């Protein structure tokens, strides 16, 4: 059995969680405490409107948000205006509210709509799913929060728990391209309607070696399924293999099903008329490209700069620091509750130097 390790890396405005099995990344989460996705949150809500055509009902939640409660998860037989205790089971998506499930209360529920409790973060969810895994974090506050629930499984590291290699993997998860062993690459393009994944054969492309094409595509299936899982991609997913006639693509379906078997949310639908492998993945958590933005949002760029800046400050403590970035990045950081305060506490005061021409990803924190 693979030895599992959960790493929780906390930086200003953000926490990143990784599950490693024998050193290989098996799960990845990027969470922002100021913008929680809500999965697992427990609410008191009011059934606002029945939706028979959708086999469910809309429920008004705190803060003006509206969630959807399917008949199969507790809406059936309920009446408009009724107060319910509900849990969020699927993160909100593209303007649509979260998916809900009814959670019976031990006593009568009355209004107003309110949040009763937050759901577990990624570290706690992974710890529950992998009870033998140790948890390491570089945040003393996170260690103190987790120890009452996880006990001696939790350890605190004064040094960053993400090494350069793991930081690089998380950077790759934020991008479109994934290099394949042996050459070639995956290109991942999420759209509002579906996710398109293209296989570039690299040096194999244009060759006449059918066995090489087959070997490349067979190796690609496992990596495609892994990337889908790590990125929390959801909905319709189309995978376009490199070369190969339709009959040989169909022959790869059993291998695709085997690769998808490790992910309980992923289902292989079949082959489309154009020869694309069609997959469907149930949405639970927010896909990484929605958290980070595509291209990366001003907040993502700013938080990445703060993350790098904290590491620089640990290497050179006491030096006054300056952030050089586009003004939109600075404004996004100022609008993110607690991010700049957390940086000041960890690394010291930070001043801002505006650069309207600063390219995305080139934000820099340096000694003043």
Give the SSE map:
Elements: E1 4-11, E2 14-21, E3 24-31, E4 42-51, E5 56-60, E6 66-70, E7 83-90, E8 99-102, E9 114-117, H1 122-129, E10 134-137, H2 140-150, E11 154-156, H3 164-173, E12 177-179, E13 185-190, E14 195-200, H4 210-230, E15 235-240, H5 246-250, H6 253-260, E16 266-271, E17 277-281, H7 288-292, H8 298-315, E18 321-325, H9 327-334, H10 339-347, E19 350-354, E20 364-367
Parallel strand pairs: 1-10, 10-11, 14-15, 18-19
Antiparallel strand pairs: 1-2, 2-3, 4-5, 4-7, 4-9, 5-6, 7-8, 12-13, 13-14, 15-17, 16-17, 18-20
Notes on the protein architecture:
The structure is a single chain. Helix 4 (210-230) packs parallel to helix 6, helix 8 crosses helix 9 and helix 8 (298-315) runs parallel beside helix 10. 28% of the residues lie in helices and 31% in strands. A hairpin with an 8-residue loop joins strand 7 and strand 8. With 368 residues, the chain is of the alpha+beta class. The model has no long low-confidence stretch (mean pLDDT 92). The chain folds into 4 domains: 4-29 and 120-168, Nucleotidyltransferase, domain 5, CATH 3.30.420; 42-117, Nucleic acid-binding proteins (OB fold (Dihydrolipoamide Acetyltransferase, E2P)); 175-288, Aminopeptidase, CATH 3.40.630; 296-367. Strands 4, 5, 6, 7, 8 and 9 form a 6-stranded antiparallel beta sheet that branches. The chain has a 6-stranded mixed beta sheet with strand order 12-13-14-15-17-16, covered by helices on one side. It has a 5-stranded mixed beta sheet with strand order 3-2-1-10-11. The protein has 10 helices and 20 strands. InterPro entries: RNA-bd_AU-1/RNase_E/G (IPR019307), RNase_E/G (IPR004659). Its cofactor is Mg(2+). It holds the Pfam family RNase_E_G.
């Amino acid at each position: 059995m693979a030895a599992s390790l959960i790493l929780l890396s906390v930086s200003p405005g953000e926490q990143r969680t990784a599950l490693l099995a024998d050193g290989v990344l098996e799960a990845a989460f990027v969470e922002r405490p100021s913008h929680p996705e809500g999965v697992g949150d427990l609410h008191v809500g009011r059934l606002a409107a029945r939706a028979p055509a959708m086999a469910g009902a809309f429920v008004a939640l705190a803060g003006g948000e509206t969630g959807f409660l399917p008949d199969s998860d507790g809406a059936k037989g309920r009446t408009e205006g009724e107060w319910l205790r509900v849990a969020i089971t699927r993160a909100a998506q593209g303007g649509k509210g979260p998916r809900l499930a009814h959670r019976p209360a031990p006593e009568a529920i009355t209004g107003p709509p309110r949040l009763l409790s937050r759901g577990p973060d990624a570290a706690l969810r992974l710890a529950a799913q992998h009870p033998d895994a140790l948890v390491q974090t570089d945040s003393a506050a996170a260690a103190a929060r987790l120890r009452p629930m996880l006990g001696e499984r939790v350890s605190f590291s004064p040094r960053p728990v993400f090494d350069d290699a793991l930081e690089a993997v998380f950077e790759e998860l934020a991008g479109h391209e994934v290099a394949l062993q042996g050459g070639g690459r995956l290109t991942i393009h999420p759209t509002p309607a579906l996710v398109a994944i293209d296989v570039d054969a690299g040096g194999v492309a244009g060759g006449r070696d059918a066995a090489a094409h087959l070997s490349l595509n067979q190796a690609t299936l496992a990596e495609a399924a892994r990337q889908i899982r790590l990125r929390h991609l959801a909905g319709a997913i189309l995978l376009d293999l490199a070369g190969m006639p339709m009959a040989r693509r169909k022959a790869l379906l059993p291998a695709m099903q085997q690769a998808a078997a490790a992910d309980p949310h992923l289902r292989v639908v079949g082959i489309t008329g154009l020869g694309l492998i069609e997959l469907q993945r149930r949405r639970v958590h927010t896909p990484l490209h929605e958290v980070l933005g595509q291209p990366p949002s001003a907040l993502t760029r700013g938080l990445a700069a703060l993350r790098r800046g904290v590491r620089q400050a640990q290497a050179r403590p006491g030096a006054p620091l300056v952030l050089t970035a586009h003004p939109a990045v600075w404004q996004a950081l100022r609008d993110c509750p607690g991010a700049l305060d957390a940086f000041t506490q960890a690394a010291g005061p930070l001043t801002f130097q505006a650069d309207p021409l600063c390219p995305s990803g080139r934000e820099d924190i340096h000694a003043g």
